[in-house]
């Protein structure tokens, strides 16, 4: 149900999430925020068990923020993702593991490269040029395989994302409400209209 | 004067001093010297070895200079057994950071970690402070090459050149005179280090078996730590015309 997307380009990462909050057969809310800004250049999208998602992502968010305040420097996207993965891995062998899937998108200001990490609730982590979570992945990864190139511009990235969402609109049985898209680049994190 | 306060390590004297910490620093001032010098393209840590007896079997690496992690080294002055505990702690802390963040620990944070531990022994526990001072040298992507110094109180500061142990007053004086404001190259730092060490060492004959020497620099973007072996130290002494006659005659 809950779909997350991430697409990297030359100097940015565009992410998108569907804004539905569902409980069993009822649509509880449209306009749910499934993202958290971890620091000025790292963004985390989450899906899975509703309570776990918010609890885990806010835990990561405040720990990453605390690091920045304590040490006066920001963690790189790779370090942020590694930290989140480590927390997920420790939770996995506890009494009740967190059941969350994540996309961590960032821009590394030291190397000037975009970064996108796909993590799942079993604490796997891969660093990928594009990624998706949820049923949407089954429809769109093939589209991204076909049309993605690593040097695309932001406009091309947005068009590619729109292609993916269009595919979901025509092929998924449930109505897809508006997606919320956010871009991470050297200037930080901002919402874009798609 | 306030002798009856000395027994408790973790309380102030009426004058507002921590005697145990001061006594620890006194112990360090009798230990052999270690110094560090920051260069534009690297850094040097050099130290004098206390006992160089023919009968000593040198199986362990060295007693003065240690590797902390891929991007940091340090020199110690003080009680060697205390130093071992702290070195072990800081090596573990560095690996814990790598385990959590998959990146090398930034230098200043590592220094802070050790200093926080040392501070604990001045405030609670009822145990004496560690009788060791450190001079740390490392590189990270945030601040480049850095040199730090910490003492038993748990205070630390960043330096361009500093020394710990015996004769620090004269060594610091020479460093202040000779260190160029605009910065030095690694080669100049190496020469300066060996020169200062030779001036402050008590012995009449300077030999490679009495010195420990290490450098840290970037090669192709990666940190390279070099702990000099005896022949490399001898070559450095020769270059600076510091090899004494008795050594050359051998």
> How many strands, which pairing sense, and closed or not: the largest β-sheet of chain A?
5 strands, antiparallel
Alpha carbon gap, first and last residue of chain B: 54 Å
Q: Name the biggest interface.
A: A-B, 10 and 10 residues
Secondary structure: number of strands of chain A: 12
The residue-averaged pLDDT of chain B reads 91
**Order of strands side by side in the largest beta sheet of chain A?**
10-1-2-11-12
Name the beta content range of chain A: 35-45%
Order of helices and strands of chain B: HEEEEHHEEEEHHEEHH
Main beta sheet of chain B: 5 strands, antiparallel
**Could you tell me the radius of gyration of chain B in angstroms?**
18 Å
Strand order of the largest sheet of chain B: 8-1-2-9-10
**Nearest-integer average pLDDT of chain A:** 95
What would the principal axes of the Cα set say about the shape of chain B? globular
The CA-CA distance between the termini of chain A, in Å, is 20 Å
Derived from helix and strand composition plus strand pairing, the structural class of chain A reads: alpha+beta
The total strand number of chain B stands at: 10
Strand content of chain B: 25-35%
Oligomerization = heterodimer
Low-confidence stretches of chain A: none
Please characterize this protein's 3D structure.
The complex is a heterodimer of chains A (194) and B (250). With 194 residues, chain A is of the alpha+beta class. In chain A, the strands form three sheets. Chain A has a five-stranded antiparallel sheet with strand order 10-1-2-11-12, with helices on one face. Chain A has a five-stranded antiparallel sheet with strand order 5-6-7-8-9, with helices on one face. With 250 residues, chain B is of the alpha+beta class. Chain B is 35% helix and 25% strand. Chain B is built from seven helices and ten strands. In chain B, a hairpin with a 2-residue loop joins strand 1 and strand 2. In chain B, helix 2 crosses helix 3 and helix 4 runs antiparallel to helix 5. Chain B is globular and about 50 Å long.
């Amino acid at each position: 149900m809950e779909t997350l997307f991430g697409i990297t380009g030359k100097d940015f990462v565009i992410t998108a999430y569907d804004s539905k909050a569902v409980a069993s057969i009822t649509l509880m809310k449209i306009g749910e925020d499934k993202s958290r800004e971890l620091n000025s250049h790292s963004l985390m999208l989450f899906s899975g068990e509703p309570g776990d998602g918010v609890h885990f992502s806010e835990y990561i968010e405040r720990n990453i923020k605390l690091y920045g305040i304590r040490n006066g420097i920001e963690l790189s996207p790779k370090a942020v993702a590694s930290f989140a993965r480590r927390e997920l891995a420790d939770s996995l062998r506890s009494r009740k593991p967190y059941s969350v899937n994540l996309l961590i998108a960032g821009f590394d200001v030291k190397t000037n490269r975009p970064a996108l990490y796909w993590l799942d609730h079993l604490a796997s982590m891969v660093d990928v040029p594009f990624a998706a979570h949820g049923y949407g992945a089954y429809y769109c990864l093939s589209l991204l395989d076909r049309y993605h190139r690593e040097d695309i511009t932001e406009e091309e990235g947005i068009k590619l994302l729109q292609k993916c969402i269009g595919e979901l609109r025509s092929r998924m049985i449930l109505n897809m409400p508006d997606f919320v898209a956010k871009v991470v680049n050297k200037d930080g994190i901002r919402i874009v209209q798609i | 004067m306030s002798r009856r306060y000395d027994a408790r390590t973790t309380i102030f004297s009426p004058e507002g001093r921590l005697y145990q910490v001061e006594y620890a620093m006194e112990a360090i001032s009798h230990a052999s010297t270690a110094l560090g010098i920051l260069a534009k393209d690297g850094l040097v840590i050099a130290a004098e070895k206390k006992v160089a007896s023919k009968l000593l079997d040198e199986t362990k690496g060295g007693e003065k200079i240690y590797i902390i992690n891929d991007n940091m080294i340090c020199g110690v002055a003080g009680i060697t057994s205390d130093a071992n505990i702290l070195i072990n702690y800081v090596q573990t802390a560095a690996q814990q950071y790598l385990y959590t963040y998959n990146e090398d620990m930034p230098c200043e944070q590592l220094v802070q970690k050790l200093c926080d531990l040392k501070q604990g022994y001045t405030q609670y526990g009822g145990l004496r402070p560690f009788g060791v001072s450190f001079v740390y040298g490392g590189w990270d992507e945030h601040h480049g090459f850095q040199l730090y110094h910490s003492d038993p109180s748990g205070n630390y500061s960043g330096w361009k050149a500093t020394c710990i142990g015996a004769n620090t007053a004269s060594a610091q004086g020479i460093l202040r005179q000779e260190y160029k404001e605009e910065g030095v190259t690694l080669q100049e730092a190496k020469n300066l280090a060996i020169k200062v060490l030779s001036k402050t060492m008590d012995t009449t004959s300077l030999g490679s078996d009495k010195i420990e020497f290490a450098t840290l620099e970037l090669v192709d973007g990666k940190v390279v730590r070099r702990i000099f072996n005896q022949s490399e130290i001898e070559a450095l002494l020769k270059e600076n015309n510091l090899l004494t006659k008795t050594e050359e005659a051998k």
